Amino acid sequence: MHRALGRGLLMDLRTLLLARTYTVVLDSDGVANAATRPARDADFDKFEDDLAQLGFIMSLDLAMTIRRLPHQANQELRAWVTETIVGSLVTRPVVPPATGMPTASPYLRSVATWLRARADQPCPWCARITAIAPLDPCGHLVCRACWKGGTYAGCPVCHRRVAAVDPFVRLDAAPATPIAGTNGQLRLLNLGFDLVGSARARFETLVTQLTPLAPDDRAELESVIDTMGPKTAAWLPVRIPTRETMAIAVARLWMVAADRTAMLAATATHLRTATDVLRVAVVLMGGDAALATPTRLRSISRGLRRAVLDALDRLPAEAVVEEVRRRAALWKRVGERIHPFEYAAAHGTATLAFAVVRGTK
């Protein structure tokens, strides 16, 4: 299934998931094959510090996985991850190195700055927001509950032995240094291997939102549909809570479908009224799914025009005629782009509805 999508589309989808969900989706076969020649410690240390400078830390499983990658793979992954995160940030944080730690690694000095700014941070092991601390001497973070839950002679990430008496670095009570552009909360980067499963989970989260999609959410939903294609229709829930989101999803599915008759059948249960069809038509024409903002409607292809007419024909004629009267002005504008009377013989209900709004006998 993954190979059928193509390498470029796979990378686009991975980038989207990283930017929007902070999940690094890796190829499991590639990771398994790369485990024979792990990268140098310096490669991994630089990766971690780059992330800390951006306000991110790796989950335990992600850190352990990345540390097994060879030098070249590590370099390429670091470049992609950091570039994607930088592009997703509204404001890039400014993280000064912690003072009073002259012999500490750059990474430890960076995370110390975050811990001094805010004590409650995500634990890389359990993901709970709680008090965490850096291990001595490597600086890898963990909450005390996770550490006490096992017997560890060394750090499971870098395998360095930890201090025997107290495994945690003692951060002095130096005043917290403000971190510009942030509230002081680190964010956790997670590991994933199931690209399609991750895309589906994100798709389902978006289409089941109880409020209309924000512009970024809409772009993400449409990108998933563009990448995964018609099979995304099978991911639609039985009910989509907001009609605007329904229209955006259905319109996009119609656009990517080679077989529009099959796609109309797959999405028909979401088109229960003429206004539902109107919303989809308006989205196809570049308009507002909420039908609230006047927008110039653009032309659409013959296949999409027929899909709109087919969708109307699936509804009871009496209900369609009654409903189109309520938004007659907008239906007239849609009709100018659909040319319904060209298909009068094949689309009786749709033709009748447009005749009503135009006052045609």
Task: Furnish the topology, listing elements before pairings.
Blueprint: H1 2-5, H2 7-21, E1 23-25, H3 28-33, H4 41-54, E2 56-58, H5 60-66, H6 71-88, H7 106-117, E3 120-122, E4 129-134, E5 141-143, H8 144-148, E6 187-192, H9 195-207, H10 215-228, H11 243-256, H12 260-267, H13 274-284, H14 302-313, H15 317-324, H16 328-338, H17 348-358
Parallel strand pairs: 1-6, 2-6
Antiparallel strand pairs: 3-4, 4-5
Structural features, described:
This protein has 361 residues and is mostly helical. The chain folds into two domains: 37-193, no CATH class; 196-358. It has helices at residues 2-5, 7-21, 28-33, 41-54, 60-66, 71-88, 106-117, 144-148, 195-207, 215-228, 243-256, 260-267, 274-284, 302-313, 317-324, 328-338, 348-358, and strands at residues 23-25, 56-58, 120-122, 129-134, 141-143, 187-192. The strands form two sheets. Strands 1-6-2 form a three-stranded parallel β-sheet. A hairpin with a 6-residue loop joins strand 4 and strand 5 (141-143). The longest helix is centred in the first third of the chain and has 18 residues, at 71-88. It is elongated. The model has no long low-confidence stretch (mean pLDDT 90).
